[in-house]
Structures are given as structure tokens and as C-alpha cells.
Design goal:
By secondary structure, this protein is of the alpha+beta class. It folds into two domains: 1-82 and 111-159, OB fold (Dihydrolipoamide Acetyltransferase, E2P) (Beta Barrel); 178-396, Chloramphenicol Acetyltransferase (2-Layer Sandwich). Helix content is 22%, strand content 26%. The chain contains seven helices and 22 strands. The protein has helices at residues 176-191, 204-221, 228-241, 285-300, 306-309, 374-389, 392-396; strands spanning 2-6, 16-22, 29-30, 35-40, 45-49, 54-58, 65-67, 71-76, 130-131, 163-164, 170-171, 194-202, 248-250, 253-255, 262-264, 266-268, 271-273, 276-277, 314-318, 337-341, 345-351, 354-368.
Length: 398
Amino acid sequence: MSFEIIVPAVGESITEATIDEWNVKPGDYVERDDLLFVLETDKASVEVVAEKAGIVGISAKAGETVNIGAVVGIIDTSAKAPAKAEKPKATETKKAEPATLTPTKTTTPKTSTPVKTMDTAFLTSGTPARVTKETGIKNLLTPDQTPKASSSKTSASISPSATSTSDGTERVKMSRLRQTIAKRLVEAQQTAAILTTFNEVDMSALMALRTQYKDDFEKAHDVRLGFMGFFVKAVSHALKHFPEVNGSIDGTDVIYNHDVNMGIAVGTPKGLVVPVLRKAQDMGLAEIEGTIRAYALKARDGKISMDDLSGGTFTISNGGVYGSLMSTPILNPPQSAILGMHKIEDRPIAVNGEVVIRPMMYLALSYDHRIIDGKQSVSFLVKVKEAIEDPRRLLLGV
């Protein structure tokens, strides 16, 4: 019997996706819940696992765009698991023989993976670049597809080939995630009246606080005390005073969000993703830092889900981790504002009429001028600056 491998639904409004890589080869035997392939959507990568055990047949290659619900392979559930190689028995020696003997050479019996040809007749239609559920499967598993001896690398991913040209350039198709990022960035520039206001913040007090309590904090909560947690708290505090900054435009209406769903921009090898801290205004520092760490690990492993990325009302982007001194972050639609953090750098500043060296950070707030006025944006950023320069304000709520 055969079981169809179907592209699962991965989010509302998503109708197609791209097979990023296969983790198995045609003819491989898989157990239930083994990883079959990684599916790349507009927002994230999704792992698809086997729902049945059996031998795999594949009809869609890595790099192909497939519709949600499309059949991309089958599993022959009637196939038995390959027999495991038995360990060779130890060579017995007679008692009369000397203790030092030349060991008898033994050979480990070889095993082969059984390959079965499916008894179902399949038909093909349409173009090979787009697989639909109606397309069916042809020659999924034939004798010439018997797996060859595999290397130490278990993944059998097939990357789309790049096109080389005679002028020394290389043409590579953009991933779906990168295409979506490009599209949304252009839309943000074309549909919003984006302005950016800047300020700088003295990090002395916050750095001293972190140095004093970071060890105790980590022992108590099993998570490191970073700067991002304080910025999330400071922004959440400031948004209560300036609700427009946490709002968005829908046609001729303004949407005011009572909850602060804080997006934290995370860079991955495939592009920027923005997982969301829901109801950040109610979270403590330990919960914020723990959630951010969990998201970072999921992003690194390509396991960010659609739910992780949806519903954000404000975003923080930290270009300082890459060494950025100053930048103008771009909006993440439909949000109306984004805060850009930058690297901390010792600079001379005037304090009480004297020049002193302090660890300073530039802050940048990009905002949609259609909903946020200049006074509101500047006052919001000053509120964030005050909370960071004097963290006691966060405790007192002032």
C-alpha cells in the first residue's frame, strides 16, 4: 500500500511554498516522524515529517514551487524495514594455544535496502516546476533509484543550480523568504510616509546595573541578563503614553492596540524574521530574555512557525550586534513604528559642564507620519531614553 506525502497547510492565506531541501533520497526507508523535507514559505521554514513508516518515493525536487495540498511523494507502507547487520561472532581459541594469537579476520555481512516498485499506476500532467495534487506521481521508485552508499552526510538535499555566465557573474534564484522581504520593504516605502528621528542614550547606569546583578539573575532564572529585555520594558512603558506609536492604519481607520506585541528582528542565513513577544507589557525581564533566547534558537534551526511571526504591533531591531553605528530602520507593515538599536561606543560628552567619556548608543525611531506626528515620535524616543538612562523609572512606572 502507498501513503501520499502531501504539502501541509502552513498558515492562513498561504497557497504555495517551495521545497527547500529533502532529508531523504528515493528508496530510503523512514520511520514515522522522521524528517522528510523542509518547506520554505513566505515567512518561515517548516519541517515536514513522515506520518507512516515505509520506503520513500519522491516526485518534486528541491527548489520546486508546490501548492498547498500537493502530492510530492509517497511512502510504500507495505515495505518492511531493512534487516540490521548482525555483529560477527568472536573467534574462539583453544586453551592449549598460546595467549598471543593472530586474530582471525572477520567480515561484517552487508545488508541492502529493499526497493519495491509501487503497484499503483500514476499519471502526470502539467509542468514539472509546479506540482499539484492532481498532477500525480510518475516513476517514484524504480530499481535504478536504489540508494547508493551514502557519505557521512545524512541530508540528501538538492539545491537549485545557479546559472553561470561568460562575464564572470552568477545568477541565483531568490528564496521565497527573500522575495517576500523584498516585496514588503518596497511596499512599506511606497505606502507609508516614513520619517526617522534620532537620539542618543547614555548606557552607563544600565551597564552598571547589569554588571552588578547578571550573575544573581542567571542563577535565579537560568537565563542571561541582556540589554534587550530592558529595551523591551522601556518601549512597552513608553507606548502606554503614546498609543499612536503602537497603532496602525486600516483604510481610513486608525487601529489602537491595547497590547504590546513586540517584534524582535532576528537575522538568519535565509533572511530577517521577526518573532513576536505577545503582551510584552505584562512580561518580566526573565520571561522576556527567555522567550527571546528560545526564538533565537528556533530561528537558527529554521523552526520558526507562522504563529511566532504574526500579530506584531511594534518592532525593535538591533543592528548594533553587527557593528552598526547608526541606521534608519524600515517599517514592518502594517506597524507604524520601529526602534533601531545600535552599537555601544565610548564617546566624549558634556556632563555638568565637563567633558567625560561615556558608553553611548544611538537610537533611531522610524515612523509613519500619517498616524504619528513629529512631537509624538520625539517625545516617545525621549521616554525610552529616560528609562534606559535611569532604569529605576521602570520599577516606579514614571
